[in-house]
Design brief:
- The structure is a single chain.
- Helix 6 packs across helix 8 and helix 8 crosses helix 10.
- The protein has a domain of 218 residues: Rossmann fold, CATH 3.40.50.720.
- The chain contains ten helices and twelve strands.
- It has a six-stranded parallel β-sheet with strand order 2-1-3-4-5-10, sandwiched between helices.
């Protein structure tokens, strides 16, 4: 519980989504009992009149912008314009109308996809502008990075308190398992469990398995966002992660073990790998608002598989 959240009205965009549902639980636990979750049927956040109405109707003190049109490599390759436009417009309109409405603080949940393709590992926040993002997710990453520029510009011109967070790849209960939209962990969990149920002797994964990724349990990310909203008021972007990476090939082996799949894992090197490596330097988050991830990757993965298996067998 924190005095910061008492009598504070909070809008959480994307509050019914993967990260958003965990954010709501963390906010309640912190003592925030006045949370508004705008629904897309009522407020299309890519339309200015809808965003203006959101602030007129609800008059929030603080906004956590966690909404996004997201997907894995497949979605980024097939819908680059849609992902660019939707994410840019949502963020830009929300921040502008939050400023006009006199909102005390605006929290942007960005993305690790904004980093340059060949960022030295571990990724330091200072490296954000040292190159172009990996091509398959560049439109999405650039749209989200533009919100960092907006936040810093608004701070300089309007003294508007907007902060910018850079979460690494998230995983955990409630993730998206749609084959057209899912990220690597839910995609592999579904692939392995489907193959196991069908009695298949092998599965085929995209790429060659060599890229590395860092993964953060979604509940840990929600904790980090709430801590940053409460304790951080700076202009500089902040990484949110664990600081540990794993290769996609080793990840596949772990998921096969967790799902009980005993067949062969094959790799289709004609498919894109995505960014070669992803691993964050997480010291800034620890220093500025006391966040360190508390969930081990193996424990989080086992819990995610358990919850998904319970869901499909219910």
């Amino acid at each position: 519980m924190s005095e910061f959240w008492v009598d504070r009205r909070v809008v959480v965009t994307g509050g019914s989504g993967f990260l958003g549902t965990h954010l709501l639980a963390k906010l309640r636990a912190a003592g925030c009992d006045d949370v508004i979750v705008p629904r897309s049927a009522q407020y299309d956040l890519t339309k200015e009149d809808a965003v203006e109405a959101l602030f007129e109707d609800n008059k929030p003190d603080l906004v956590i912008h966690a909404a996004g049109n997201v997907g894995g490599i497949g979605a980024n390759r097939s819908l680059p314009a849609t992902l660019f436009y939707d994410n840019l417009m949502m963020g830009a309109l929300l921040m502008e109308h939050a400023r006009r409405a006199g909102v005390d603080k605006f929290v942007v949940v960005g993305t690790i996809c904004s980093y340059p393709k060949f960022t030295p590992v571990p990724f330091k926040e200072e490296a954000l502008w040292e190159g172009y993002p990996e091509e398959t997710n560049a439109p999405y990453g650039v749209a989200k990075k533009a919100l960092l520029v907006q936040a810093q510009a608004y701070r300089r011109q309007y003294d508007f308190n907007a902060i910018y967070l850079l979460p690494v790849n998230l995983y955990g209960p409630g993730d998206n398992y749609d084959p057209e939209r899912s990220h690597v962990i839910p995609a592999l969990i579904k692939k392995f469990l489907d193959a196991k149920a069908a009695g298949d002797s092998y599965i085929t994964c995209w790429g060659d398995g060599s890229p590395t990724r860092e993964f953060l349990y979604v509940e840990d990310c929600a904790e980090a966002v709430v801590l940053a909203a409460e304790r951080y008021d700076g202009a500089e972007p902040v990484n949110i992660g664990t600081g540990k990476e794993i290769s996609i090939s080793d990840l596949a082996v772990l998921i096969a073990r967790a799902t009980g799949f005993e067949g062969e894992i094959r790799w289709d090197a004609t498919k894109p790998n995505g960014q070669p490596r992803r691993c964050l330097d997480t010291e800034r988050a620890a220093e500025l608002f006391g966040f360190r991830a508390g969930t081990s990757f193996e424990d989080g993965l086992i819990e995610m598989v358990r919850v998904y298996q319970d869901r499909i067998t219910a």
